[in-house]
C-alpha cells in the first residue's frame, strides 16, 4: 500500500488530467451554442463546469470501472496507475504544445494497457474487442447518422425567423445535455487508473469520481473560455442547423458507448466524424480529406504510442 504522501501525488496528477479534460473535451459540448450566440462564453463555461460535475457524479462509474478494472486481467497498482496518468498527461500536453487534438480516451486506454502488459497481465480480450469495435463502428455510424440528421433537418425545419429561434434554443439545450453526458463519459479517463489504489485504502469509487468531477469543473471554469471561443468560431462557420445535427448525432452515441457500455470514448472522435458526415451531405464548408486523414492517423499514433511509452516506463522502473 502506498503512503498517504504518494497517494496525494497520484491524486494531484489525476486532478490535473481531469482539469485539462474539463477545459478541452467536456467544454466542446457547449461550443455550438457559443458559435450560434445562444449563450455567452463565460456563462457557457459556467454551465459546462456545473453540469459536467453533476454528470460525472451521476454517470461516471461505468467508464471509471472500465478503465480501472477491465482493460487487463489484474489489479492496477498505485505505481501502475501513476505511470499511466503521467503518460496520459504527457500526450495531452504534447497535443496542447503542437496545437493538435489528442484524444484522452485513446491515450488512457493505451497507457493502462501498456502498464498492465508490462506487469505480465494478459489483455481482457472481451473488453478490448468491445472497445476497439466501438471505436471503429462509432466512427462509421457517426458519419452516416450525421448525414441523415442533415437531411432530416433540411426536410422538416423550414427556413424562417421562428424556426431559426427554435433551432437556436435547441442547440443550447443540446449543449447542456451533452455537457452532462460528457462529464460522465470523461471523468473515468482521469481517475480510472487509481481505482485499485483507493480500494487498497478501503474507499469506494464514488469519492474518487466526485474528486475527478471537481477537477473537470475547475478546469471548465478556469481554462475553457479560450477553448470555447476558438471552437465556437469553428461551429459558427458550420451554421446553426449543422451544429444541431452534430449534437444530435453525438449525444446518443457518447451516452450509449461510454455511460452504458463503460467504454472510454473520445469526444473528438465522435464530433469530427459527425462534422465529416455533415460535410458529405453538403452542409458546412465540406470535408478537408487531408486534414481528416491526418486526424485519423494521429489517433492511431496516440493509441500505439501511449501503450508503448507506458510499457517502457513501467519496465524501466521495475528494472531499477
Automatic annotation (TrEMBL):
Keywords: Membrane, Phosphate transport, Transmembrane, Transmembrane helix, Transport. The chain crosses the membrane at residues 41-64, 76-98, 127-150, 171-195, 201-221, 242-261, 267-284, 296-314. GO terms for molecular function: phosphate transmembrane transporter activity. It is found in: Membrane. It is a multi-pass membrane protein. One of its GO terms (cellular component) is membrane. Signal peptide: none annotated. GO terms for biological process: phosphate ion transmembrane transport. Belongs to the inorganic phosphate transporter (PiT) (TC 2.A.20) family. PANTHER family: PHOSPHATE TRANSPORTER. Potential transporter for phosphate. This is Phosphate/sulfate permease. It comes from Halolamina pelagica.
